[in-house]
Amino acid sequence: MTGSGKTTFIANATGRTDLKIGHNLTSCTQEIQIIETVLDGRTVRFVDTPGFSDTYLSDTEVLEMIADYLSAGYSKEMRLSGIIYLHPISDNRVTHHATKNLDMFRKLTGEKNLKNVILATSMWDKVTPEEGLNRELELKNKFWSIFIAFGAQYCRQNTSAKSAKQIASMLMDNEPFYLELQEEMGKDNKALKDTAAGREIMSQLSLLKEQQQRELTEMKEMLLRTAAEENKAALAALEEHYKKMMYGMEKTISDERRMNEEAARSSDEKIKELTERIHKLEKKGSCVVM
Questions:
Q1: Which end of the chain is more exposed for a tag (fewer CB within 10 A), N or C?
Q2: Which Pfam family, an example, fits this chain (predicted)?
């Protein structure tokens, strides 16, 4: 998730001091970055992605960005050696966003690839040992139990370069693999919305749209009551909040449209490929029955 310390981890592992690291409540990484270094005499490339529940990007935009990168990697037969999922132990509770993102992460990765995942807790310097231990046990026994059952490893990550390099080294001898999302889009030629991760996003968008519609209806009723009471200050505040809610609804509809348009483009490309194949067969004098 945003704010879990992904870029800080990579800066520690690579020794890079020029990476933009966030130090406030807003997210910092707005695009995928590839940072290369040498560990134990081997070239290692870290892929730094924006997190889900980003400050500026919707989950749809983040997934599209990651999917584009993974699809390009699949076309060039570039596999991953592992994934590091960071969770700040300083969070005093696992939010709805966190559980939602875990579901998204599992579907994007695929159960068969969870053995190549390291679940790492960060920001141990911000909690007492007792607080950290209690949260760690809850994460492992409740929220991460499925991941660990499928072979994911767990470790703590402190702020040192040594810790980051040790965690990265744990993945370097893995057999390279494709994520489930890569195989769905590359091998099976699915549109993003039809992949497991895409279906999760579409389901979330549908639920979010229903919730926003209910809230907008309630807000309209409140605006009418406030207007009748002639409370200008309250009315102005409510109107401003209503505008923000409308923007949120428009963004949700836009994200839904983006996913559907992406699927339509994929269909058009398939039709184009099939048409070209038919033309080639016709030139060779073959007969195609459809």
A1: C
A2: MMR_HSR1
Q: Hey, where are the domains in the chain? A: 6-187, 192-283
What is the value of pTM for the model shown? 0.78
At the topology level, CATH places domain 6-187 in Rossmann fold (3.40.50)
